[in-house]
Write a structure and sequence with these properties.
The protein has three domains: about 1-140 and about 265-340, 3-Layer(bba) Sandwich (FAD/NAD(P)-binding domain); about 155-265, FAD/NAD(P)-binding domain (3-Layer(bba) Sandwich); about 350-455, Enolase-like, domain 1. The chain is built from 13 helices and 22 strands. The chain has helices at about 10-20, 40-45, 45-60, 80-105, 180-190, 210-225, 275-280, 315-330, 360-365, 380-385, 410-425, 430, 445-455; strands spanning about 1-5, 25-30, 110, 110-115, 120-125, 130-135, 140-145, 155, 170-175, 195-200, 230, 235-240, 245-250, 255, 260, 265-270, 300-305, 345, 350-355, 370-375, 390-395, 400-410. Strands 1, 2, 3, 4, 5, 6 and 17 form a seven-stranded mixed sheet that branches. The chain has a five-stranded parallel sheet with strand order 8-15-9-10-11, covered by helices on one side. The chain has a five-stranded antiparallel sheet with strand order 18-19-22-21-20. The radius of gyration is 23 Å and the shape is globular.
């Protein structure tokens, strides 16, 4: 009998296992196979894509080497070397985790885990039954199709299959201008492919959580790099043609490319894991219903990550696992709050957002103050040749921090400074009076906070 059994060893599952073990719980885990430990993020998502994005970023930087007196004579691109380096990182992370949990004495049962009853997980095909006081469901998500676009790994790829490419395509048609679409558009373009990026809405990154200004900056940069962006456009039809595809867009234009990449979302893995038999309720879209402590409608069964909401981010899953386990241990101080989940996009810029945008804050009735500072005059950004973008902090009349939106170098790292201050309930004056090293990118956070606390003196006006 275990204290906790976790179904799924992705980001939430392994973070939850380590956290529960640290807190003194006896833990077991269930995962489909040894190759799937680490889940989608490690094996087919954020880790391999960020590896390739870093390569694209270095190619971007290569163009600026002459400004630093480094005069090189070009470069060659090799997909085989890229794949080997990428896969080496993935395998190292996966194998190190398996060794670590083995060292800690946390068993992983391989097979499909499903609820037999509220205290038992059945592992198929072995038939093993694992009993526990608590169960944490962390089964993740899967790619989805779009109409008659069924991924076949030849003409139409999804984000599970794209890793099998043996060479850089000459031309790729990407459907979806969200986080996945803009990331792969940057990667493929910098590695020498022609890219057509199609988005149904009127802007890239069409989420209400991402400011329109961030979308505009990114679109401008991608266009400058040569990405062909088509907004308010859909794919009307397509067919295989001369070793690639011929597509007709809703505009009537014909596009010929080597392949189509779908970047159009994912669905929760909540089918066939015994939820209905035990009484765990789902919503109409198939997500598990959970409360603020990640507790399902069966009190000792919890859920985390991609199966709890459409906000499918590895760090959300990791945090929710800790929320669930803390609640199992009788604590009530950690709660799930999707507004406080950072959203980081890695494309031609890093784009980071947490909390409310200006539009969202105004819709909720706040009288807002906004502090905006550009990276253009930032000395550290200038030294690094990356002085593009901004820090944008949204606060209420009293200076309470409502949101932060950063576009530019290392935005995903910088965001945490503001995010944790927000969570602690501190105001803009706290950030405005803090010390920042010089030269640093972080100085922009202090300056944006002073814009709120002391009033605006910069030339950057609100759009």
């Amino acid at each position: 009998m275990y204290d906790l059994v976790i179904v799924g060893v992705g980001s939430g599952g392994y973070e939850g296992a380590l956290y529960a073990h640290r807190r003194g719980m006896k833990v077991a885990m269930v995962e489909l196979s040894p190759e799937m430990v680490g889940g989608n993020c490690l094996n087919r998502g954020c880790i391999p894509s960020k590896y390739m994005r870093h390569g694209a970023y270095m190619l971007d930087k290569f163009e600026k080497l002459k400004d630093y007196g480094i005069l090189l004579k070009g470069y060659n691109l090799n997909m085989k070397e890229l794949k080997e380096g990428r896969d080496r990182v993935v395998i190292n992370i996966r194998e190190n985790f398996k060794k670590f949990v083995q060292h800690l004495g946390i068993p992983i049962f391989y097979g499909k885990g499903a609820l037999k009853d509220k205290n038992t997980v059945l592992v198929e095909p072995s038939g093993e039954e694992i009993k526990a006081k608590y169960i944490l469901l962390a089964t993740g998500s899967s790619t989805t199709c779009l109409g008659n676009l069924v991924p076949d790994g030849r003409y139409v790829y999804d984000t599970d299959q794209i890793w099998s490419l043996e060479d850089f395509p000459k031309k790729v048609l990407i459907l979806g201008g969200g986080a996945v679409g803009v990331e792969f558009a940057y990667i493929f373009k910098m590695y020498g492919s022609e890219v057509v990026l199609v988005e149904l809405k009127d802007r890239l990154l069409p989420s209400p959580d991402i400011p329109e200004e961030s979308s505009r900056y990114l679109a401008r940069k991608l266009k400058k790099l040569g990405v062909d962006i088509r907004l308010k456009t859909t794919l009307q039809s397509w067919e295989p043609f001369e070793g690639g595809i011929r597509a007709i867009l809703s505009s009537g234009e014909e596009i010929r490319a080597d392949l189509i990449l779908l970047g159009v979302g994912r669905k929760p893995n909540t089918e066939g894991i015994g939820l209905e038999e035990v009484g765990v309720e789902k919503d109409q879209k198939g997500f598990v219903k959970v409360n603020e402590f990640c507790q399902t409608t069966i009190p000792n069964v919890y859920a985390c990550g991609d199966i709890t909401s459409p906000l499918m981010l590895a760090h959300k899953s990791m945090y929710e696992a800790k929320v669930a386990i803390s609640h199992m241990l009788g604590e009530r101080d950690m709660k799930r709050d999707e507004r406080m989940v950072p959203k980081i996009i890695y494309s031609a810029y890093e784009i980071a957002s947490v909390g409310l945008t200006e539009d969202q804050a105004e819709e909720e009735g706040y009288d807002i103050k906004v502090g905006v500072v550009s990276f253009v005059p930032n000395p550290k950004a200038m030294d690094d040749g990356e002085n593009e973008g901004f820090v944008r902090i949204v606060a209420d009349e009293e200076g309470r921090l409502l949101g932060c939106h950063i576009l530019g170098p290392h935005a995903g790292e910088l965001l945490h400074q503001v995010m944790h201050v927000m969570k602690a309930g501190l105001k803009a004056d706290f950030l405005s009076k803090a010390m920042y090293s010089h030269p640093s990118l972080s100085e922009a956070i202090g300056q944006a906070s002073m814009e709120i606390h002391f009033g605006s003196i910069t030339w950057t006006k609100r759009h």
